Amino acid sequence: MQIVFATNNLNKLKEIQQILPSSIRVLSLKDIGFEGEIPEDYETLEENAFQKAQYIFDRFQIPCFADDTGLEVEVLNGAPGVYSARYAGEECLAENNIQKLLLALQGKLNRNAAFRTVVAFVTETEKYSFEGKVGGQILLQKQGEKGFGYDPIFQPEGYKLSFAEMLSSDKNDISHRGKAVRKFANYISSL
């Protein structure tokens, strides 16, 4: 089975390929000849994931999935949430987002947070979504060099390491994206 993953994020693509069974060939946007940005202008993770998957499916007619992920910080009323990737501005780097979040949490005792991912799958006849979530804490400072995004400051519940200190296989076992993708993989493996 061939499906397209509607993302320009090579880190996400690599993570997904490690989680999905080898019987499923994941095509990148480059593989199908798509260059450019995919719209992502809704207010929820679910809407954004479906928008991205539908956008690529409409142009290429290949079953497509997309994800949207947000880091939801309790004391910030769920922010940055759907705006996690551009928390510090449209053209910002992950480091800018991390620094803005650490500044917003300065002096706060409650550092509870959760990563949430929604995977949307679109074919000619189907539309499904799958959600994964992992709770944890925002650390006081960065720890670790692996991973991407907020990984260096997110410590999952029950662990002493940040996501950026974990082996990618260990992170995938417990992560929000790993949980959502495994639900998705179970579904498409049954087709």
Structure summarized in a few sentences:
With 191 residues, the chain is of the alpha/beta class. The protein contains five helices and seven strands; from the N terminus they run E-H-E-H-E-E-H-E-E-E-H-H.
Explain this structure to me?
- This protein is α/β, with parallel strands linked by helices and 191 residues long.
- The chain has a single domain, classed as Maf protein (Alpha-Beta Complex).
- Helices cover 30% and strands 24% of the residues.
- It has five helices and seven strands.
- Strands 1, 2, 3, 4, 5, 6 and 7 form a seven-stranded mixed beta sheet that branches.
- The longest helix has 16 residues, at 45-60.
- The model has no long low-confidence stretch (mean pLDDT 93).
Task: Provide the descriptors you would attach to this structure in a database record.
30% helix, Maf protein, alpha/beta, 7 strands, 191 residues
